[in-house]
Design goal:
- The protein is mainly beta.
- It contains no helices and eleven strands.
- The strands form two sheets. Strands 2, 4, 5, 6, 9, 10 and 11 form a seven-stranded mixed beta sheet that branches. Strands 1-3-8-7 form a four-stranded antiparallel beta sheet, with no helix packed on it.
- A hairpin with a 5-residue loop joins strand 5 and strand 6.
- The protein starts with a strand and ends with a strand.
- The model has no long low-confidence stretch (mean pLDDT 96).
Length: 120
Amino acid sequence: QVRLVESGGGLVQTGGSLRLSCAASGSIFSLNAVGWYRQAPGTRRALVAAINSDGIANYADSVKGRFTISRDIANHTVYLQMNSLKPEDTAVYYCNAEVGISRKTTYDYWGQGTQVTVSS
């Protein structure tokens, strides 16, 4: 069984920073592509940033230059550093990961989400 646990959300003022963590645990052979998504009330879940197994990252236009995704391969953890936060960044942030449980078998997992609230 594999679990993804997000942490680091909270309440911050406009212009502030937060760092989200997504820690994978369980029977993990490899942690492949990992993405951070967010969903605000009444909206669809949308990709914010993603990083592949080669460490190549991509970002939504709305967060480019403000957010940075990174990974700690040894500890199966992915981070999202969020700077210059804006009220429109307020959402529940979810981690999604493609996890290899063997050399040939991968599954897709979601975390439970962490709330980020940016006050104006």
